[in-house]
Design goal:
The complex is a heterodimer of chains A (about 180) and B (about 400). Chain A is mainly alpha-helical and about 180 residues long. Chain A has 8 helices and no strands. The chains are: A mainly alpha (about 180), B mainly alpha (about 400).
């Protein structure tokens, strides 16, 4: 689905056309889940993030608000805010139900090590500033282009590059200190 | 390749390893989807009826900034003082006290007088443009107060920093209410002011203590965030307006008083409600705002930080009696398990409602993911870039 399709969906979504809303949900919920899961490490909390992100979208639309265009950017920004708030209220990131992917091919010791490594990384990411975390997550984990991130964040590509540079430097420092 | 580059490459590789995560449980995903559509259907009935109400609600986000319910009580003394100051400012009666208060600092006895006099000036501003200019001037005062305190080794308490954040938000909110040329003018002015202040605060000579350093970092973070928002507004005021709407929406959701506010608005519209107190109802000058969101201290009561979407917090939980919003337990919020009590989960879909197994909206249908690899694998990788399924949002 391209941008034009999305732009076509938005007016229908504003009128609470359930078909359009379902299409929007189907198009973005899986990606949002992965985004949240990668940063939070818990399926339950990631699902919560997705639900809340879409619930906020509905509430915004019901008030005549919500995204004017860039629906995807809006949804990811909303999810990002949710995750940021979650980090703040849960300083010690819990990963209670994370299972190691491809667990069958790894020894137990390796699984534990990988899990600890992920937890360490997420913890380090959670210590970045909100903007830095967004750039790191979207670019290096989600694979977004910098230009798309710039649009999403309302910044110039140069500013996003600067954020990326600082984020990597900070991450390196945080990981070294631990 | 330098050692720094190698280090970055190593970190990037580590980050990429996070792409492999546990696959989404299809049943749980389908359940969430059903909840979403149920919430949509519920809200659909509310948006189709009160179109005018919706307009008022929208305006309510921006126009009555000062008429919003405040989170802290207003003492009668403050109201009396404000009225007296109002007369003073207008007729020059208590001008001496007010003038003396203008140079006061946050820990001075006269400081509340200074703040109240500012409120009065805002209220008697001739138009929205003047109001925005005044708010910008007052934001400048807040920064100068903090800078002076840092220089003299005084540690600003939480309320001082929070007050700065709220003042800056007020500036932005007032600015986006203006016509576009006026809005840009105010934002450009605020942008320049914030740039200078960021430099000033960063280079302030102050005693070398961890506490002061921490405060300075917070102030700098606040200034940088609002500088970013201001820059966004200069290049695209509508985008800033949308961003502020999003933040306001989050704030309302998180406060849990959203439904109450909507109800008040609706009652006011119908003449059934009384107008909130005209004094001290400005939410930007009272409650605890943001910390790192980057809006506030981080107290638990701060809706931008901790109160928020915390799972289990149950905000927007449907406890409200507002018929327009949350009557039914908001499905999308889905906090807590409570699934057995949720009518949207277990109830048999109404034929033709679009939710049954033969419907296009059948929850069991496979979402377009495009983000999973390996048919039998339990791992989802990559994905979600703008170039795959969910993508192209930014590209024609």
């Amino acid at each position: 689905m391209n941008l034009i399709d999305t732009m076509d969906l938005l007016p229908r979504a504003r009128n609470f056309d359930l078909d359009a809303l379902a299409l929007i949900y189907d198009q973005y919920s899986q990606g949002l889940y992965l985004y949240a899961m990668r940063l939070l490490g818990s399926t339950e909390i990631a699902e919560e993030c997705v639900s809340e992100t879409f619930s906020r979208l509905l509430k915004a639309l019901s008030r005549g608000l919500g995204p004017r265009d860039h629906l995807k950017a809006y949804l990811y920004r909303s999810a990002h805010n949710w995750i940021t708030d979650y980090y703040r209220s849960h300083r010690d990131i819990q990963e209670l139900d994370e299972k190691i992917p491809d667990g069958g091919s790894l020894q137990v010791g390796e699984q534990v090590e990988l899990r600890l490594e992920h937890k360490r990384l997420r913890s380090a990411i959670s210590k970045l500033s909100s903007d830095q975390r967004q750039v790191v997550a979207l670019h290096f984990i989600e694979g977004w282009e910098l230009t798309d991130i710039a649009v999403s964040m309302g910044k110039s590509v140069g500013a996003v590059k600067a954020l990326q540079h600082r984020a990597l430097a900070n991450l390196g420092k945080i990981l070294k200190d631990r | 390749m330098t050692s720094k580059d190698l280090e970055d490459t190593e970190i990037i590789d580590q980050l990429a390893s996070l792409q492999s995560v546990q696959e989404r449980d299809p049943r749980r995903a389908a359940n969430r989807r059903r909840l979403f559509l149920a919430e949509a259907e519920q809200l659909k009935s509310t948006v189709s009826k009160p179109a005018l109400f919706r307009l008022i609600t929208w305006k309510g986000l921006f126009y009555p900034i000062k008429l919003r319910p405040r989170r802290e009580g207003v003492s009668m003394l403050n109201i009396v003082m404000l009225i007296a100051l109002g007369f003073g400012v207008v007729f020059g009666g208590s001008g001496i006290t007010v003038a003396a208060a203008q140079g006061s600092m946050p820990d001075d006895v006269l400081y509340p007088v200074k703040l109240l006099s500012e409120q009065v000036r805002l209220r008697i501003a001739e138009d929205a443009s003047e109001e925005a200019q005044l708010a910008t001037e007052f934001a400048n005062r807040r920064v100068e107060e903090i800078r002076t305190m840092l220089q003299t080794g005084m540690v600003p308490d939480e309320t001082v920093v929070v007050r700065l954040q709220e003042q800056l938000e007020t500036c932005l909110m007032l600015a986006v209410r203006l016509s576009q040329p006026e809005s840009v003018n105010v934002l450009v002015q605020l942008q320049e002011q914030l740039r200078v202040q960021t430099q000033d605060i960063a280079h302030t000579n102050m005693p070398d203590t961890a506490e002061l350093q921490q405060i300075r970092d917070r102030v700098l973070q606040t200034l940088e965030l609002h500088l970013h928002l201001t820059e966004m507004g200069v290049s695209d005021p509508l985008k800033l307006k949308e961003e502020l709407q999003l933040r306001e929406q989050d704030r309302l959701n998180q406060q849990g008083d959203d439904s109450q506010y909507q109800q008040n608005q609706y009652q006011n519209f119908n003449g059934r409600g009384s107008e909130p107190s005209p004094f001290g109802s400005n939410p930007w000058t009272t409650g605890t705002p943001t910390q790192g969101s980057e809006y506030g201290p981080g107290e638990p009561q701060n809706p931008w930080i901790d109160v928020t979407p915390t799972p289990g917090s149950g905000y927007g939980s449907g406890e409200s009696q507002d018929p327009w919003i949350d009557v039914t337990p908001t499905p999308g919020s889905g906090y807590g398990s409570g699934e057995s009590q949720n009518p949207w989960i277990d109830v048999t879909p109404t034929p033709g409602s679009g939710y049954g197994p033969e419907s296009r909206l059948d929850p069991s249908c496979t979402p377009q993911s495009g983000t999973q690899t390996g048919s039998g694998s339990s791992t989802s990788t990559g994905g979600n870039s703008p170039t795959d399924t969910g993508g192209n949002w930014g590209k024609p």
